[in-house]
Amino acid sequence: MLKKNDGSLFCENTEARQILTVSQLNRKSRSLLESQLSGVWVEGEISNFKHHSSGHMYLTLKDENAQISAAFFSQYQRNLKFELKDGLKILAFCRVSIYEARGQYQLYIERVEPQGVGALQLAFQQLKERLAKEGLFNEERKRSIPRFPKIVGVVTSPTGAAIHDILNVVNRRFCGTHVLLYPVKVQGEGAAGEIAAAIETMNERSEVDVLIVGRGGGSLEDLWAFNEEAVARAVFGSHIPVISAVGHESDWTICDLVADLRAPTPSAAAELVVSSRLELEERLRGRRERLDFAMNGMFERYQEQLSNLASSAAFRQPQYLLDQFTGRVDELGRQMEGRLAGLVGSKSQIFHGVTGRLNALNPLAILDRGYSVSFNEKDEIVKNVQQVSVGDVMRTRLHQGSLISKVTAITK
Asked: What is the pTM of this model?
């Protein structure tokens, strides 16, 4: 029995009840939400962002007063150009549903756009900042472009205006330069991969001296392949100098920033790598004229010196000059003999003087005057009778020869 609001009692019919399990309730709620909110745009700020190893993304969308969980599965991320991260404000196209296992109300995102800026522009800024931190744009790593390349490699579309512009410039400025084209797609799906692969192949083959990578102008979407990370990495890893020639003069791409040199157009790139034949011929002509002038001046100086020598006395009267030199040689010879004789005499006098002084100091010189020198058995000069004894044998040195004697007596 149940009691009505007015206080009276009534009997409830239990067979009229609709009883649902939790699973059934969640399923009905999910169906109801998905039927009413199958495709809505939701604006919010990302928080609690997680990129799962499976490729799925999980996040929370919030505003000032509320928040809701959201899932962004990998199959919907194909056209995502920029990176999702905490704090980024986005517009999400999604369906509203319930995760039945937990009864959790959440969003299932199918497409994402950045709020306030285009997706491609945001992706460009994000990749630019990341590659700049890695040093891919550093000027000190960039190489100079060869002055006279024999073969120029071009990575572009075979049907676009870029290759025709490049060939026209090359043929007009220096027809001796060869162009090697590697045909690729320059826009649309797969274009970035083809461009990167072409740069890597050109490096593996090492047939060209410089690479031009580019295409004609277009919208940001048309040029997007040259903003892809794969192209930037290929240009950075190239051992061949790379000129980026993408779009018109006002267009800048990631490829432009990484390349060794940026040209505003494909035609300008060809102008940079191929010197003008007329300009080269003019420079050679000017240098030849300067060389001719210098050589003529040198010939004139040498001719004047030769004329002066030919008119000199040595050439006009060589015997007279030879007689003069012969007389001079004889005179110098006589002077040398005189000076040498004087020098020898002077040195001889000095020698005799020194010899006399040495003889005066020679202790054996007294023997010449009749004196003698006696030596004991120890071969010592006998100066005192105490150095010998009776019976000792002595040697006496005379001026000529020596005497051997025996001591028979000693007197003091």
From this structure: 0.51
